[in-house]
Design goal:
Number of strands: 17
Shape: globular
Distance between the termini: 40 Å
Helix content: 25-40%
Structural class: alpha+beta
Bound molecules: zinc ion
Radius of gyration: 25 Å
Amino acid sequence: MRTWNWMITASLLLGISAAAQQTVDQSTPPQARAQSAPLPASSVSTQQQAAPVSSSAQPDAGVASSSAVPAPTTLDQVLDRTVERENALMEMLKTRTPLVETYLQNLKLDAQTGPTPSEDHYFFGRMDLSESVDRRDYLSKANFQSRLLGGVTKLFKFEYDPLGFSWMIFADRSDFNRQTYNFRYVHREFLGDVRCVVFDVMPKKGTGAGRFEGRIWVEDQDYNIVRLNGTYSPKPRTASFFHMDSWRLNLVPGYWVPAYIYSEEGDFSYRSKDKRAFKAQTRIWGYNLQKGGKDSELTQLVVDSTVKDESSAAQDASPLQAQRQWQQQAEDNVIERLQNAGLLAPEGEVDKVLQTVVNNLVVTNNIELPRPVRARVMLTAPVETFSVGNTIVVSRGLIDVLPDEASLAMVLSHELAHIVLGHNLGSKFAFNDRMLFSDESTYRNLGFKHVPEEEEAADKKAVDILKNSPYSQKLDTPGLFLKELATRAPGLAALMNPHLGNSFTDKKGGVQRMAVLMNSAPALDANKLDQIPALPLGGRVKLNAWDDHVELTKTPPVAITSARDKMPFEVTPFFPRLTRYGSGANPGAPTSAANSTPSN
Ligand SMILES: [Zn+2]
């Protein structure tokens, strides 16, 4: 999309081994690019304004998947069913401990770019959705607390309060029922492919503070809530509550699991008193982690037994072979551990796209390696890459913001250079005791930061690799990306703070990595609409909240009409296209989810 040169790469996958020169001809010239922003609100069509539910409401399809009750025929029955399904969801999720990531950008008004991030915060933890909603943080405790006390949460009852947490995920954890709430039918409306009954929801008088107030969208087959939009009410004297737009996806039969939450506060209108402004994206994933971990252990056993054949000849390994095997053992340990901790996507389509770009670099540079380079996607937002053994890991946030394939090649070339130069870190992880730590302490137990000398050497080698590659004439955009990074980084410290690898920037926000590419790049010009140095977050990688698989989004391009449309590195609202489980319109739907359906 936008510079969807990547899509070309993806289509090349059929002939992965084809000469790398092919990619040269196929990339499109840089011209007025289009935004791959989420679906605008206008695309949500309002179809029927008639009575909420008629007797023709497909009694066969969805109802069977949850319970064998006849389809509701009155509004009251619809509401009863909605309440029942909401409670069933809470029950089903009780045993789940998904990961929750919130990335928040404080905003200031910029004359040219509009509300622009001036400071950011990052929260990453794991939720226990059992009776007492609890969370454990992946980031260090001290850090978390200092951030907690650092401002945002003083004014807003933040979602990391367990109560707030549960509200973001459920309408009302304790009392979502018709005794506590008044429901008013609004209309019917399609969200994506899914027809919904829409209700406005108000807490009844005297039911206490912190009740949900807003609107819910209820799909009209099983009557699950698919979207919540509103806030808490009434607000306590000491705090405010965020406004939230919370989306659920039908990733397992019969249930819609919470996946995305967008929050926004602030008002930049003239003389507005509301000086505090921010926007935040919350993503939830890893619902099926525990079970997924066990499944993959079995697969791992099978894989291991086939790998053994390679060392044929029934001989001991030579010293060099042994050294390489040792490194591979460390690599496999780390990759498996990261995946089981919910930090790494399972192998998939996006890896292949990354690997194709690496392959373009390898082939044109006649690089010979004992094993092919693999690439994997880390599921978190902070911009980072690292490599362990022959595996390059790139974060979801970084893939999202890269403007084109050449920029991706720039990122990958640096890690490829580490591999080529033998800057192998992490062989200590071949000792299995070093893999025995809790998921939440992953960042304290793993790390792949190179010393400055190796960073410098890798950059130098990477530039040589790029100059010999199909991307040699396309290095303007990577240079522009780094320039934009240098401009934005001071206000995006949390996004730029890597957790396992080296940073792109220094403490002051100056670009450290591949900085030489900035010298030959054109000047940044926000008003040039065909200059897209970096994309907003969330535009490229689509994450399956249930099984952690990632895929590239296939949203059609939307034209940029002003400098404010560019939104480099920024968070935006979510508008996922809702589809029903197994409808075929959801190619990312997991094949394994069928086996992992909650037993309820
Ligand atoms: Zn490096």
